């Protein structure tokens, strides 16, 4: 059964700053709990190593759509099954709403139990709060990839 999570947070940085930082996937372990490492394999492919509740996983994710200052969508290629999209909404010159939608298929008894207890929703909320603290404390992005990836017909019906 697929779990759908949707959460937003307002960050006190311009939309380009929030977007640019989000494209720096290798920095995710600094604000996402359970993410041990992310390697940027190609501009659109990342390799993830996670350890959540004692369960270590490795998987690849492919960016299926990306538009600067607007959205980044992805889906996993192997291992755990998830897809999602993060969108960036300009509120004004110095504030941005970041919205994350995640579709996740929990595997095994531990993940299914955690999902039933709302741990995935709680983790997404906490990770977005950590992103807010991370980017606001810096006040600027570490870098940014502003490439545009159009949605391909093969991308399927992942989160929108």
Mean pLDDT: 87
Overall 3D form: globular
Which structural category do the helix and sheet elements fall into?
alpha+beta
Please identify the top-level CATH class. Answer: Alpha Beta
What's the total count of β strands?
Answer: 7
Q: What's the story with the biggest beta sheet?
A: 7 strands, antiparallel
Question: How far from one another are the termini?
Answer: 19 Å
Rg from Cα: 15 Å
Strand content: 35-45%
CATH superfamily: START domain
Q: Which parts are unreliable, with pLDDT below 50 for 5 consecutive residues or more?
A: 155-160
Topology overview:
Layout lengths: L2 E9 L3 H8 L12 E8 L2 E8 L2 E13 L3 E6 L4 E12 L2 E11 L2 H9 L2 H20 L22
Antiparallel strand pairs: 1-7, 2-3, 3-4, 4-5, 5-6, 6-7
Can you offer a commentary on this structure?
The chain is α+β, with helices and mostly antiparallel strands. It has one domain: Alpha-D-Glucose-1,6-Bisphosphate, Chain A, domain 4 (2-Layer Sandwich), CATH 3.30.530. It has helices spanning 15-22, 108-116, 119-138, and strands at 3-11, 35-42, 45-52, 55-67, 71-76, 81-92, 95-105. A seven-stranded antiparallel beta sheet has the order 1-7-6-5-4-3-2, with helices on one face. A hairpin with a 2-residue loop joins β6 (81-92) and β7.
């Amino acid at each position: 059964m697929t779990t759908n999570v949707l959460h937003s947070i307002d960050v006190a940085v311009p939309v380009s700053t929030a977007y640019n930082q989000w494209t720096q996937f290798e920095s995710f372990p600094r604000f996402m709990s359970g993410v041990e490492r992310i390697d940027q394999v190609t501009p659109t492919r990342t390799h993830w190593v996670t350890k959540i509740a004692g369960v270590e996983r490795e998987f690849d994710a492919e960016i299926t759509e990306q538009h600067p200052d607007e959205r980044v969508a992805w889906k996993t290629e192997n291992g755990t099954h998830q897809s999602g999209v993060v969108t960036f909404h300009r509120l004004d010159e110095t504030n941005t709403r970041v919205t994350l939608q995640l579709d996740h298929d929990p595997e095994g008894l531990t993940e299914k139990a955690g999902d039933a207890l709302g741990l995935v929703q709680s983790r997404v909320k906490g990770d977005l709060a950590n992103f807010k603290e991370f980017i606001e404390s810096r006040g600027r992005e570490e870098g940014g990839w502003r490439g545009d990836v159009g949605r391909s017909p093969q991308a399927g019906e992942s989160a929108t």
